[in-house]
């Protein structure tokens, strides 16, 4: 069974059943990654284009490996070396790629809504790899997959998201996804980095990290973006680290078996202490592996995949 949609543009419009299908499909995909020879012919003859208008290492490489492990022809396009610098529009770029035979276009763009615009003009599938301050759906999916894999469930867990909630597309996608799947989501940040009326999204907001971390099952740390300090949204990097950095001492407030997560790249010693990032509770490297598995699942489902377990056998 494939997804009953052409594109993956955000978590907000996914149903609980669709999220469940993606997470279930990622399980056999992870088995492929564990093999000595990581190759199956599932997407042979399919073309996947990674169109990135923003720099990225993890997400772009993850999509590239996901396609190649399933034998798709995968091509990366850096917009700094393309016709975009000559003034070509997003629509024209997309149509050009489609008439060349692209089956899937993975796009990351600094403008919120850019993937939605592209999807309207293409018959090829479009996957949102991050758009402005809007969403980063595949990151939320890999985070949910990691939580379910480690904890056996998502429903009923207390998940604390710490950091730049206001501008984080990772936070936004995770809030929508985790609340749909039945988790209790807490957001922790300085008041200047909390969106107004954030509680309307079904979360609990805290400006005290100690209160927010109390008895949490999962601690999701967001990268602090240095430009926020330059914009005066918090006094100094040192002050932010002192008040909101996730340290080993603060982590004791969460459950002893709580997970520590981070979407990367990390600012060690700022939003997360090095001993926490490298500690036994951290599943940060596992998130990276799971990112490939989840993106394999999405490429498979959007191109009309059948039983995912047939892919592994």
The order of strands across the largest sheet is 7-6-5-8-9
* Strand residues, percent: 5-15%
- The global form is globular
Order of helices and strands: HEHEHEHEHEHEEHEHHHEHHH
Q: What profile does the largest beta sheet have?
A: 5 strands, parallel
Number of helices: 13
The count of DSSP E runs of length 2 or more, i.e. the number of strands, is 9
**Ends apart, CA distance between termini:** 17 Å
Computed structural class: alpha/beta
Radius of gyration over C-alpha positions, nearest whole angstrom:
19 Å
Overall pLDDT level? 93
**Uncertain runs:** none
Helix share of residues? 40-55%
Protein model, in words:
By secondary structure, the chain is an alpha/beta fold. It has helices at residues 16-34, 58-69, 90-99, 114-121, 137-151, 169-180, 209-213, 226-230, 237-244, 248-251, 274-277, 284-302, 308-312; strands at 47-52, 73-78, 104-109, 125-131, 158-162, 184-188, 204-206, 218-221, 259-261. The radius of gyration is 19 Å and the shape is globular. The chain contains 13 helices and 9 strands. It has a 5-stranded parallel β-sheet with strand order 7-6-5-8-9. It has a 4-stranded parallel β-sheet with strand order 2-1-3-4, with helices on both faces. The relative contact order is 0.17.
Which key features would you list for this structure?
13 helices, single chain, alpha/beta, four-stranded parallel sheet, five-stranded parallel sheet, globular, 313 residues
């Amino acid at each position: 069974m494939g997804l009953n949609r052409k594109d993956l543009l955000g978590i907000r419009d996914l149903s609980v059943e669709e999220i469940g299908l993606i997470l279930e499909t990622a399980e056999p995909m992870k088995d492929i990654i564990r093999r000595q020879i990581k190759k199956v012919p599932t997407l042979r003859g399919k073309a996947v284009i990674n169109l990135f208008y923003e720099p990225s290492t993890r997400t772009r490489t993850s999509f590239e490996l996901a396609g190649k492990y399933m034998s798709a022809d995968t091509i990366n396009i850096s917009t700094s070396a393309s016709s975009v610098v000559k003034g070509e529009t997003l629509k024209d770029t997309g149509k050009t790629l489609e008439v060349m035979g692209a089956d899937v276009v993975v796009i990351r763009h600094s403008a919120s809504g850019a993937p939605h615009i592209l999807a309207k003009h293409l018959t090829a599938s479009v996957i949102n790899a991050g758009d402005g301050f809007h969403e980063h759906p595949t990151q939320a999916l890999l985070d949910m997959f990691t939580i379910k894999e480690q904890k056996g469930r998502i429903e009923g867990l207390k998940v604390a998201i710490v950091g730049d909630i206001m501008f984080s597309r990772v936070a936004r996608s995770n809030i929508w996804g985790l609340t749909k799947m039945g988790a209790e989501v807490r957001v922790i940040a300085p008041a200047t980095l909390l969106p107004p009326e954030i509680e309307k999204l079904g979360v609990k907001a805290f400006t005290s990290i100690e209160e927010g971390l109390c008895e949490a099952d999962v601690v999701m740390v967001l990268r602090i973006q240095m430009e926020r300090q330059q914009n005066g949204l918090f006094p100094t990097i040192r002050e932010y680290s002192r008040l909101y950095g996730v340290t080993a001492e603060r982590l004791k407030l969460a459950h002893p078996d709580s997970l520590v997560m981070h979407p990367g790249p990390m600012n060690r010693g700022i939003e997360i202490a090095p001993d926490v990032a490298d500690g036994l509770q951290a599943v940060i490297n596992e998130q990276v592996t799971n990112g490939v598995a989840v993106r394999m699942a999405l490429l498979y489902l959007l191109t009309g995949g059948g039983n995912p377990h047939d892919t592994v056998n």
